Amino acid sequence: MSFLIIVAMSTKVSDFAFKDDLFQHYQNLQLDPTWVITNLIILVLVATIYFKTQCRPIYLLNFSCYKPADTCKCSKQTFMHGSNALGTFTAESLEFQQKVLEKSGLGDETYLSEALLRIPSNPCMAEAKKEAEGILFGTIDELFAKINVKPKEIGILIVNCTAFSPTPSLSAMIVNRYKLRSNIMSYNIGGMGCSAGVISVDLARNLLQVHKNSYALVMCIECSTLSSYTGNDKSMLVSNCLFRMGGSAILLSNKMSDKYRSKYELVHTVRTHRGADDKSFDSVTQKEDFEGKIGISLSKELMIVAGDALKANITVLAPLVLPLSEKMLYLGTLVAKKFLKLNKVKQYVPDFKLAFEHFCIHTGGKAVLDGVQKNLVLSEWHMEPSRMTLYRFGNTSSTSIWYELAYTEAKGRVKKGDRVWQIAFGSGFKCNSAVWKALRNVNPAQEMNPWMDEIQSFPVDVVRVSRPIRPTLGPVAC
To answer: Angle at the Cα of 401 (from 396 to 405), degrees rounded to 5?
Structure first.
């Protein structure tokens, strides 16, 4: 009994000691309110700075590409017929254009403005504005039909066009037509060449990093009415044969709620400008010929310049997209050649097919596509969207990479998680890249797409369908 009493007494004593310890700990945990508030403020500031410095995700809700009316179709034969009827070209110039067309990779259903197709042609400002309005409004109308966004919700508008810059601007024409809000941030980009599409997307991305809950409408357009060259300088005649009309409209968003209804997320944009080099700067220039006629001159060194610009662009892009194994192989051969002086070791060309499922390469011409295919070691399947776009629509300048993505979608090739690399070249000289990640499978049956009513006819064998053009060098009855 005495043993139990002693145990009970010791237990009570220990309980009291334990409670005293808890009370003492509680007293120690009581913090100075000033200290608590100061630390909370610091924590909030750090969190705010962190989230402010993080790049906002940029989503591509949808895009559309313009498909002109059949009355604007221009076969190679029609082109030569019109050139002959113009009466300004020598027989030598006509023969040169005919040879360029036969080797160009263009088909017989590309598009030129109705003003140029008429005989006699009528390339005036009124016709150029008519062409521009048709492309702008037709493309944007289709885009708005695809998405549940009202014009008043657009906060940023960016328009680019190389060959046509009227007053009021093309962007002002859009604001007026769709009655966009008065505080819209509007930009009209000119003279940036065929890579202006990626430049516009990059500009939109930067603006969307600053302006919350915004939509950015990017419009790429190429007008043909006033860009036709009527002289006899061969360096300027090439662009006549390759460039065609086209347009594309892209809607971007930084709203997190738009992620689940968007097609793509913008992952990277890489811009390379080689304008400091005189050879690059002079490779594509608009100027007057010896007769005072304005045209776009393409230098003989253009392919070399384009290759150098592509390499410079890839040097920046590759570390961002290639898997570690490819980076190590490339670095290993680089060290062996430059530092160990092992000249017999060939420089390793990274396999970009491990980084991307789809390639959209600007349709600068057949030679441009051949050069990029060789440098990047791409298969004909990867080159198919670019070659078919060149064949069907020609070189539509900054819009071409969107016709190529539309082709890929029309074929049902875009699956969730796929990565798309858009590569564009432009005067200056520039090479720009945009990398997209597909957020969902794209079902072609649900798309409004310029390829949909004829996609089953592609791909075509460009070599097989390219036939010599019948001579049209004699007099033409108007």
So the answer is: 125
H or E stretch including 92? Answer: helix 91-103
52 and 130 Cβ atoms separated by less than 8 Å: no
Q: Which of 84, 395, 432, 449 is catalytic?
A: 395
Tokens describing residue 60: 């591509």
pLDDT of 333 = 81
- Give the active site residue among 65, 273, 360, 449: 273
Residue of 72, 188, 362, 382 marked catalytic: 362
Tokens 């998405």 belong to which residue?
Answer: 147
Contact yes or no for 447/65 (Cβ under 8 A): no
Residue 263, CA distances (Å) to 72, 174, 446 in order = 31, 24, 13
DSSP state of 301: T
Q: Which of 161, 358, 431, 432 is catalytic?
A: 358
Catalytic residue among 65, 74, 194, 360: 194
Beta-strand relationship, 215-222 and 154-161? parallel
Which one-letter DSSP state was computed for residue 243? B
For residues 72 and 464, the answer to whether their CB atoms sit within 8 Å is no
Q: For the chain, what is the radius of gyration of the CA atoms?
A: 30
Phi, psi dihedrals of residue 190, rounded to the nearest 5°: -135, 155
**Is 194 tagged catalytic?**
yes
308 neighbors 237 (Cβ within 8 angstroms) = no
Query: pTM value?
Result: 0.86
Nearest 5°: CA angle at 203, between 202 and 204? 90
The answer to whether residue 273 is catalytic is yes
Dist. CA 228–CA 113, nearest whole Å: 11
Q: 430 - beta bridge partners?
A: 273, 426
Mean pLDDT by 10 residues, the chain (478 residues): 42 48 54 70 67 78 97 96 94 96 95 94 94 97 95 97 93 98 96 94 97 96 93 94 96 96 97 95 93 93 93 92 89 76 73 96 94 94 98 96 98 97 95 98 92 96 67 38
The contacts of residue 143 (CB under 8 Å, 6+ apart) are 62, 63, 64, 217, 249, 250, 251
Q: Is 358 a catalytic residue?
A: yes
**Burial of residue 431 (number of CB atoms within 10 Å: 0-12, 13-18, 19+):** buried
3-state secondary structure 326-340: HHHHHHHHHHHHHCC
Residue 402: Cβ within 10 Å count: 27
Going 424 to 427 to 431 to 435, the CA torsion angle's sign is negative
